[in-house]
């Protein structure tokens, strides 16, 4: 054996990470180094000796290594999934979403205005249903001895959030007998009831399902009502404002949209396209870069000119950007100077595709601004619609509206019953 090769083998042994292997590697490294230092004449005999010693050491320690590996494998599937999900989540929080490059929207786009086929919540939630109920059904059809273990795994990966999964699982565990736990229909019924009770606790009784979108806004007793829209970049704020103002204008309300995203000229242009489409007025004073000033002046104008509703767009920001969050608090504060109760509504727009990250955003924005509602966009096509349950359970902020497409009418009031029927 050449001295170069000996170096490589010694290095390989040093690279082992398992505690036992490190121990073995250390021993072998010493022996190899010894060989390397030996005078050439003694090397053959020493090499044989080294390999014998290496074999003996491996024979002694292999059972320990296997035992250690086996122990590692026996951590519960839930622990492993939770660890995996938590790694993914940390990674996604540490990597802020890149600002989406928006496609220009043209007012002549018929698809945006009408569309061939009406979008429905049920259709929008098909992927979520597959990811949720489809996989729960599979867990039962695979003849598993304990199907609930697999159900737990499904729930952990359905973007519900670990706290909510635990409460669903303990409910199943406490209310079902051992035989019921193996019965798909009973598990389905119990899960449905529990999810509905979570949704009721934050969205009110099932009667609220029948409220149309305008009835979900808190209206000012007097003067213009202010609705402030917040959220991260690309969540769908501007699009939703466009859809909402079209809806409100259609109901005969005088709507003023304040272009509070003063960071990017493109954002103002995009809002202009949407307000033209919705046939409502935009307030976008030229040269004003302070979003608080835009919001303040918009409310003053609405008050002076008897508008019914002011919808304030804001620049997207991450909840981790302290200065920008402070700026948002200021935007909220200054509006009250003009109209003491304003803003009467502070709604966060969340992209359902961001799954558990949406839950974190909602929590942080809520702490800063005391949110009064949630709009979940892009429910169409996402498999992560389970986030509705986590937000309701953990934050108790009512979910007001679902965005289910890019067209102007693709906005639906959130119905608890319809949601549960669609996913399970
Ligand atoms: N599929 C789908 N796309 C949406 C929905 N809402 C918004 N979008 C798209 O999301 C992208 C970002 O929207 P935008 O309103 O500019 O986000 P903002 O940065 O929060 O103002 C645009 O391409 C929108 O068309 C929705 O409900 N469904
Ligand atoms: Mg925007």
How are the secondary structure elements laid out?
Blueprint: H1 3-15, H2 19-37, H3 43-73, H4 77-94, H5 110-113, H6 121-124, H7 126-141, H8 147-156, H9 162-175, H10 184-203, E1 225-230, H11 237-250, E2 255-260, H12 265-278, E3 281-283, H13 291-304, E4 309-314, H14 322-338, E5 345-351, H15 356-369, E6 373-377, H16 387-395, E7 399-403, E8 411-413, H17 416-423
Helix pairs in contact: 1-2, 2-3, 4-8, 7-8, 9-10, 9-16, 10-16, 10-17, 11-12, 13-14, 15-16
The structure holds guanosine-5'-diphosphate and magnesium ion (MG).
Briefly say what this structure is:
This protein has 424 residues and is of the alpha/beta class.
The end-to-end distance, rounded to whole angstroms, is 66 Å
* Main sheet record: 8 strands, mixed
Radius of gyration: 30 Å
Helix content: 55-70%
Mean pLDDT: 83
How many strands in all?
A: 8
Strand coverage percent: 5-15%
Structural class: alpha/beta
Low-confidence segments, given as residue ranges, are 1-19, 69-78, 89-115
The strand line-up of the biggest sheet is 3-2-4-1-5-6-7-8
* 3D shape: globular
Bound molecules: guanosine-5'-diphosphate, magnesium ion
Order of helices and strands: HHHHHHHHHHEHEHEHEHEHEHEEH
Please tally the helical runs, counting DSSP H or I stretches of 4 or more residues: 17
């Amino acid at each position: 054996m050449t001295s170069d090769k000996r170096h490589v083998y010694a290095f390989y042994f040093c690279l082992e990470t398992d505690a036992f292997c490190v121990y073995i590697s250390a021993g072998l490294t010493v022996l190899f180094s010894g060989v390397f230092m030996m005078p050439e004449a003694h090397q053959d005999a020493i090499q044989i000796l080294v390999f014998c010693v290496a074999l003996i050491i491996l024979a002694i320690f292999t059972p320990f290594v296997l035992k250690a590996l086996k122990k590692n494998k026996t951590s519960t599937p839930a622990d492993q999934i939770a660890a995996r999900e938590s790694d993914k989540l940390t990674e996604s929080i540490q990597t802020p979403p890149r600002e989406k490059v928006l496609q220009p929207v043209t007012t002549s786009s018929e698809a945006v205005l009408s569309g061939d086929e009406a979008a429905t919540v049920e259709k929008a939630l098909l992927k979520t249903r597959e990811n949720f109920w489809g996989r729960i059904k599979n867990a039962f059809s695979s003849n598993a001895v304990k199907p609930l273990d697999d159900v737990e795994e499904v729930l952990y990966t359905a973007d519900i959030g670990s706290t909510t999964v635990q409460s669903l699982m303990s409910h199943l565990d406490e209310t079902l007998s051992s035989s019921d736990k193996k019965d798909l229909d009973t598990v389905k019924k119990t899960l449905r009831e529990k999810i509905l009770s979570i949704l009721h606790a934050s969205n009110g009784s099932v009667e609220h399902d029948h409220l149309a979108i305008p009835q979900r806004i808190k209206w000012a007793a007097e003067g213009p009502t202010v609705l402030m829209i917040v959220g991260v970049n690309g969540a769908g704020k501007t699009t939703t404002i466009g859809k909402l103002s079209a809806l409100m204008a259609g109901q005969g309300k005088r709507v003023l949209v304040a272009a509070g995203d003063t960071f990017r000229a493109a954002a103002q242009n995009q809002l202009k396209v949407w307000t033209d489409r919705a046939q409502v007025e935009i307030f976008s004073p030229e040269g004003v870069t302070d979003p608080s000033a835009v919001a303040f002046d918009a409310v003053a104008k609405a008050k002076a000119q008897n508008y019914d509703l002011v919808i304030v767009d804001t620049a997207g920001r991450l909840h981790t950007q302290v200065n920008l969050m402070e700026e948002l608090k200021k935007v909220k504060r200054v509006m009250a100077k003009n109209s003491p109760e304003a803003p009467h509504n502070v709604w966060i727009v969340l992209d359902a595709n961001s799954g558990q990250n949406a839950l974190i955003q909602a929590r942080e924005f809520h702490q800063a601004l005391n949110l009064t509602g949630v709009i979940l966009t892009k429910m169409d096509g996402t498999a992560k619609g389970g986030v509705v349950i986590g937000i309701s359970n953990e934050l108790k902020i009512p979910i007001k509206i679902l965005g289910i497409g890019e067209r102007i009418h693709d906005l639906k009031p959130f119905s608890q019953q319809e949601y549960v029927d669609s996913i399970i």
